[in-house]
Amino acid sequence: MKLTILGSSSALPTSERYPSAHVLNVHEHLFLIDCGEGTQMQLRKCRIRFGKINNIFISHLHGDHVFGLYGLLSTFNLMGRTVPLSLFAPASYMAKLSSHLHDFDINLNFQIDFHPLAGKEPVQIFENKHMTVTSFPLKHRIEAFGFLFREKPAERNIIRERIEELGISVAQIRAIKKGSDFVAADGRLIKNSDLTLDPEPPLSYAYCSDTAYFRGLAGVVRNVDLLYHEATFATNMKELARQTGHSTAADAAKTARAASAGTLIIGHFSARYRDIDPLVEEARTIFPSTIPALDGFTYDIAELARRIK
Amino acid sequence: MKLTILGSSSALPTSERYPSAHVLNVHEHLFLIDCGEGTQMQLRKCRIRFGKINNIFISHLHGDHVFGLYGLLSTFNLMGRTVPLSLFAPASYMAKLSSHLHDFDINLNFQIDFHPLAGKEPVQIFENKHMTVTSFPLKHRIEAFGFLFREKPAERNIIRERIEELGISVAQIRAIKKGSDFVAADGRLIKNSDLTLDPEPPLSYAYCSDTAYFRGLAGVVRNVDLLYHEATFATNMKELARQTGHSTAADAAKTARAASAGTLIIGHFSARYRDIDPLVEEARTIFPSTIPALDGFTYDIAELARRIK
User: Fold this and answer.
1) Of B15, B19, B61, Cβ closest to residue A45
2) ipTM of the complex
């Protein structure tokens, strides 16, 4: 699992920070989370292959999280995409998107499979061989959703030497990887723990933006390896944070601490902070394993998880 | 008159080239011409002051010329703009823009004065103390317009020493600057040419994108100091240019030559050209004073005009 930050600004981009967009790479499947203006240019700069993006998640319908989607869809089209695209977004978005594409005479050559987000409870919205995605409500001025990406536990790693040594068949290998013991030709029972090694522990990533602080959030993202939480403001602007449905760096850190997160990555910085170090420092006083989201940087979640241990 | 290129790509941006957007500075009034995705970030990078943009011109309703406008308008709003904004665009655009802003709950604190572009003839659409702007039809897959920005002739420069020497009043100075002769206290007639120096010649800039080649265009932009003409393709792709309503570099150069333009600046380059030198070379064989549009660069039109002479 690797996370690339395409944009870490809040509504007003700066010359250093673009509006919100993240790319999560899980076993070479790319998940685009939010799609602020300029996402396609940032994808190019980061040399991320457009064709590997088959799932896009939109947290809420504020422009700084969506306005890059029109250009990206047009580009998919011009590049000859025919593979369907799954789009997860608040329920009202599909009609808005369709009408806007129609206004600009954009006829997509590929299908959009739209998955409306709704509800007040966490809901699993995606599953493949490797992972699941759960959406959950945030607390913003308008309906907004966070996303939790969880790897499934990997199969156990079989010790290669044992395969030849004991004459294990392909079908038996499959069972052993899932945890079975093995009965040898001579009738001996060999325990799974003598045949396999522990796999890498499954990793997880949660995206929480935009949101005001609320106590219930920590429970939803409990034990996540990497928690992205918006930190639009420092604590001295907490009134503005409250009014606008945003969080301070301290709010983000409190949620990370209550959730026993591995690492906290903060972003969605207000344009007023040219230097974001004070925001990181503020969060670290509450939750030391805090790092800032930096445009164009890729974070290896396995590596971050190892460092924590 | 100075021109800043914010984006020189065609529909598919690259890591080096953003979609179309130009800023023309005429006596510190900024005119934004087209507004592709990422325009506001490019404005920041070029340190151009948002508050000086009061007029936006949209050539046609393809996304790579418009999709930056939503973000830019939102940003104007967040920055507290109250000054009205004049928007010149194809007639159908205002309804599309309004519906899109409505979809995203964007209530602008400033007024948009919409000026629909239409018709088959050049029309003057703007005038201030310093200049005029004329729109004219291009030849593209959909309705598209070019823009001609022309400075008015400046007043004559009065020779300071003469004012004291001859006791010229403020009212008389004003008349002399406009070309009047002067009658001295002793009745002598002093010719204007003995009182003044020639002003800088008025400059002009034309924006022609997107368009296929057509013979009539040269007449509309005759003698322009700087001609921006799209050159999406090289001549070996002229069939594709024709099919898509675009020009080759040679097409752009032919129009520049027929128009007796001062300098030709080509842009709107297809993403297939990582290196645009061949396009510039192709144009120069027909029109030697050709330069490429480069993102983030500013071109001093007075300086270019002086070099030509």
Assistant:
1) B15
2) 0.90
